[in-house]
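Have a close read of the entry that follows and walk me through the local backbone shapes. See right below:
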Amino acid sequence: MKKFESLSEILTFAIAQEEVAYDFYTELSGRAQTETMKKVLLGFAEQEKLHKERLQRVLGVTEPVTLDSRHHAEIAKYVSAVPDADNMTYENAIKTAVNKEHAAMMLYQILAKLTPQKELREVLELLAVEELHHKKLLEKEYHDILIKKN
């Protein structure tokens, strides 16, 4: 994994991850097992687009933050590529989405702790809460899938 040298680099990475998440949820919505879940997934895609826009707005106002090896190790735990949903079952894609949302939530929580800027910290905390909401909805869908299987 690349070592990030600044908060700006991490935010740039997070922006790219939000783009990937948008594509992931858009594609996954086409395979949703119910019309309701399709709408939820398309809603997630739109929210990921909004997350990207929020991050782009705050990217230009970040102050330098020095990252030490402890920060790199903590961030590395939650930075991973989102697999292509085309190559997995709907069930596995939902499970992957749960993990992605958890990782995004943790990353935003860590970044919020690292930044001394109140405005940026509030945006990152809000994004963490929104990712947690996504995770909970996806966990319910995953649970429903498992119940139908049994």
